[in-house]
Amino acid sequence: MEEVKLFRTWSSPYALRIVWALKLKGIVYETIYEDLANKSSLLLEYNPVHKKVPVLLHNGTPICESLVILEYIDETWNTTARFLPEDPLARATARFWAKFNDDRVNHHFSCAVNRNSYVITYKCS
């Protein structure tokens, strides 16, 4: 049986997109909630570069960064409908909106959720 674990926080919109992807693909997984104020040794081991969530652990191999994880899920479990359209222009458009969401929307969501927390990694304006 495949081991799939998702390291996340309850408030991360980046991790939430991975939850949606796993559910859309029907993938059984274990959730491991992280406290970003006290990061676990596993999180630091699995994502030594950025030290943040989400991290997908698949059969002992960590995959980091939400958009990379989405591509990995789509390519690894490709027996169901794909996340991106086949047409190159439609794919580019979908990627544009995903990047726009990362750059303009998720940043403000994270700031709003974490406004009163000292675990803010972005400058909120």
Automatic annotation (TrEMBL):
Alphabetized SUPFAM superfamilies for the sequence: Thioredoxin-like
Chain ranges of the GST N-terminal domain: 2-81
Keyword tRNA processing assigned: no
Cellular localisation: Cytoplasm, Cytosol
CDD domains the UniProt entry points to: GST_N_Tau
EC number: 2.5.1.18
A GO molecular-function annotation: glutathione transferase activity
GO cellular component, one term: cytosol
Keywords: Cytoplasm, Transferase
Catalysis performed (reactions): RX + glutathione = an S-substituted glutathione + a halide anion + H(+)
InterPro entries the UniProt entry points to: Glutathione_S-Trfase, Glutathione_S-Trfase_N, Omega/Tau-like, Thioredoxin-like_sf
Stated family: Belongs to the GST superfamily.
PANTHER family tied to this protein: GLUTATHIONE S-TRANSFERASE, GST, SUPERFAMILY, GST DOMAIN CONTAINING, GLUTATHIONE TRANSFERASE
Function: Is involved in the conjugation of reduced glutathione to a wide number of exogenous and endogenous hydrophobic electrophiles.
Entry protein name: Glutathione S-transferase
Organism ancestry: Eukaryota, Viridiplantae, Streptophyta, Embryophyta, Tracheophyta
